[in-house]
Design goal:
By secondary structure, this protein is an alpha/beta fold. The protein has helices spanning 63-71, 77-81, 118-135, 150-164, 167-171, 193-214, 222-232, 246-251, 255-260, 305-308, 316-331, 376-388, 407-413, 425-437, 471-480, 514-526; strands at 2-5, 36-38, 50-56, 87-91, 96-100, 140-146, 181-185, 239-244, 269-275, 286-296, 337-346, 358-360, 366-368, 398-403, 418-422, 442-444, 462-463, 487-492, 496-497, 508-509. It has two domains: 13-191, Leucine Aminopeptidase, subunit E, domain 1 (3-Layer(aba) Sandwich); 208-411 and 441-492, Zn peptidases (Aminopeptidase).
Length: 527
């Protein structure tokens, strides 16, 4: 078992948003880190196309009339003065102008769990602005806030940084090449340095998760994923990384995890990223487990080609957990945390596991393999057992797994809402509220025990899959057999944006569940 301790290092600041520099692949660049203050002493860039972005809180909407007078052409004023829309856009005397007047909306019901939050509204509004900046070839943006909440400010900054991410530019070292210089006007509502730092942490965590999902499977495999966690992520003090290779998995009796990765060129592994803050904490450990199937052919129960096309994203749960770990490192979270990556590739080979194999899990239960394409729950099961059997001060109070586990959940909830399963009502409510506040939604589904009968087997304790209906529920019931009665939650995610939307300006990994879990941990420390 290899253990690596990394030293604390300060984050480097970007010198300019338009300067391209070659960086380590996983040094996620930031646009908002380059934002500057603008005041009367700031020298304007002569001749450079400039845009103006102003956000007005409910008590400051009267400023819109003055803004119209300052920026609009004479023939525009009459129409603009009658305009009370939430977002007003026009081309003024000095360039394009966007004026935002966030309006309170009624609840959508459902106990408020799917209401749009201030943070998510600002994130998606400002994220979508970035494409307009590029279309208008703007070199400078002047941004002002008046009377808005910190949630609006935080969402706006995170949205900018999420929208700045582009996989191809990032891989070519040109991530920040086409983005304008942003000036925050100082005679408006100040944006604190702490808030910018907080936004940096959020955005880098989400963009890391997105980038990991976007990496092609010939580059990201169980071995390279583990190497990345050990060597390429700059962990701050308090972090240790341990890797259990295939030999160690076998020694630990992790038959389910080992079986899934047996047919691949690069064998399975488990990565444990352990964080213990340098200062004593009253908080008890929380453990996160991510499904990391770096590519899923379906195994011998081979998927059709159309279903296999996006299966590089089957490690989306592990990407989420890795992004969350990066956030904990950069924010120096005050409580103990454990992050586990259950890594394997489900491939086809003479050594691949077979339907009707009976495999023994780490907790001693025997599982009949009904379908080799129900492999994610197998790697999660053994790693969940590792997370749930830690002792003493390392014993987890709460265990949460994140996985691109079933297509059934997308059929029921669509691509944007994660399925939430939990054996604890209070924990489920905390996660649902966190998802709403972060605009990273989930919806609680039932752990309906009557469906468990579909998993019965005459040859083992149970099978790894059941009938055709309720597949997300039976998958969650399977995982529940491996949590040893711990407070546990399972997030069944899609992890992918099929099209550009909000702050995600291109199809690909979307970092689903990262923002929800950041909010969950932030509120947990305040309890």
């Amino acid at each position: 078992m290899a253990k690596i301790r990394t030293s604390s290092k300060k984050m480097k600041k970007a010198s300019s948003p338009r300067v391209s520099k070659k960086t380590s692949k996983f040094q996620i660049p930031s646009w908002i880190e380059s934002f500057k203050e603008f005041n009367k002493h700031t020298k304007a860039v002569n001749g450079e196309p400039t845009g103006y972005v102003v956000v007005l809180g409910a008590s400051e909407t009267h400023r819109a009339l003055d803004l119209f007078k300052t920026h609009a052409l004479s023939w525009q004023l009459e129409a603009l003065n009658k305009n009370e829309r939430e977002v007003t856009y026009f081309i003024g005397q000095q360039g394009p102008v966007w004026i935002f007047r966030p309006q309170s909306k009624g609840s959508a019901g459902h106990h408020g769990f799917i209401d749009e939050a201030q943070y998510s509204w600002a994130r998606d509004q400002f994220g979508s602005l970035v494409s307009h900046f590029k279309v208008n070839q703007l070199k400078t943006i002047q941004m002002e806030f008046y009377g808005v909440s910190e949630a609006h400010q935080l969402g706006a900054l995170v949205g900018f940084d999420m929208a700045a991410y582009n996989y191809r530019q990032f891989m070519d070292g040109k991530q920040l090449l086409d983005l304008p210089q942003v000036f925050l006007k100082t005679d408006s509502q100040a944006v604190s340095k702490d808030l910018i730092k907080e936004a940096l942490g959020h955005a880098r965590a989400v963009n890391l998760a997105r980038h990991l999902v976007n990496l092609p499977p010939n580059e990201l495999n169980p071995q390279s994923f583990a190497d990345l966690a050990v060597k390429k992520i700059k962990w701050n003090s308090g972090f240790k990384v341990a890797v259990w290779d295939a030999k160690k998995l076998n020694q630990e009796g992790m038959g389910l995890h080992s079986s899934v990765g047996r047919g691949a060129e690069f064998g399975p592994s488990m990565v444990h990223i352990k964080y213990r803050p340098t200062k004593k904490s009253k908080l008890k450990p929380v453990a996160f487990v991510g499904k990391g199937i770096t590519f899923d052919t379906g195994g011998l129960d081979l998927k059709p080609s159309s279903a296999m096309r996006l299966m590089k994203k089957d490690m989306g749960g592990a990407a989420t957990v890795m992004g969350l770990a990066l956030w904990a490192s950069e924010s120096q979270y005050p409580g103990p945390l454990d992050f586990y990556l259950a890594l394997a590739e489900n491939s086809v080979d003479g050594k691949s596991f077979r339907p009707s194999d009976v495999v023994t899990a780490r907790n001693g239960l025997k599982v009949e393999i009904d379908n080799t394409d129900a492999e994610g729950r197998l790697v999660l099961a053994d790693v969940l057992d590792v997370a749930c059997t830690q002792k003493g001060s390392d014993e987890a109070e709460v265990v949460i797994d994140v996985a691109t586990l079933t297509g059934a959940i997308k059929v029921g909830l669509g691509a944007e809402i994660a399925g939430l399963f939990s054996n604890d009502d209070a924990l489920a409510q905390e996660l649902s509220l966190a998802g709403q506040r972060a605009g990273d939604l989930n919806w609680r589904m039932p752990l309906y025990e009557k469906y468990w009968g579909e998993m019965s087997s005459p040859f083992a304790d149970f099978k790894n899959s059941g009938g055709g209906f309720g597949g997300a529920i039976t998958a969650a019931l399977f995982l529940q057999r491996f949590v040893r009665g711990k407070k546990w939650a399972h997030l069944d995610i899609y992890s992918w944006a099929d099209k550009a939307q909000g702050a995600v300006l291109s199809a690909g990994g979307n970092g689903q569940a990262v923002q929800c879990l950041i909010d969950f941990l932030n509120h947990r420390q305040k309890k």
